[in-house]
Amino acid sequence: MKVTDHISNANGKTLFSIEILPPLKGENIQSLFDNIDPLMEFKPPFIDVTYHREEYVYKKKENGLLEKRSTRKRPGTVGICAAIQNRYKVDTVPHIICGGFNREETENALIDLHFLGIDNVLALQGDAIKTETRFIPEPDGHKFASELVEQIGKMNQGKFIDEDLESAAPTHFCIGVAGYPEKHFFAPNLKTDLKYLKQKVDLGAEYIVTQMFFNNKKYVEFVDKCREAGITVPIIPGIKPITTKSQSNILPNIFHIDLPEELADEVEKCKDNTAVRQVGVEWAVKQAKELIQFDVPTLHFYSMGKSDPIYKIAKQLF
To answer: In the annotation, is 166 catalytic?
Structure first.
């Protein structure tokens, strides 16, 4: 079932959803299930699965030549989505990114997802690899998420790269995209960022999931500006509880977001990460309760592979 159908069928009730990371290479899928199992108590209608692109390093050989080696550390998103759907009978939302794929490889991945009965995808540009200062697309790949959305939208119309393909069955993906209440860090301003978000919606995106934020005012203002710009699709807030003291510096640096002074002060007072986790849970519960009053369609939690804080939050809400 499509994410938008789940939202519609909820009749205004706020849903619970999570985003998970594929397990590290070498771990079996049971480690993933162990983190998801407790959260099924809250009946998530869909689970997002992130994608981590393949990266390379060059190792010097004895003869002085360089050997290219893959450093990809996490298994494939497609297989994980299939395993989750089979085990829990819930919908999954695989993340599809521009980086690391050309258009044909993207099409093949989407065909596999369609074959498995996966109805939803989140279309993202993806991060630059560690050796790049800015995102660089693959040859014949997509540079922007809008181009990826356009390709998926064409496949939903039965239009594939091979225009001579006969009797091609159209896909039926519900396309989600990312939104940034504090603007994307490469956008010069929020107005420009919203222009490109509107473009993705016009190309076929049916819902938006926001970057994490810690100040609900940012989300409310973002929704208002989206509506003013003519963006009418559901906007799902993304929530991440702080779990370690170092995150008060790491998260603003990596994700280009602001931490409210009150939250930063409370984290600073903590003597250890156990205390930080309690502060993070309490802040996220407060955030979530306010957002429910704002009638958000779904509370989407970034688990980062750890379910315990999310469980403690959800237990007070659902």
So the answer is: no
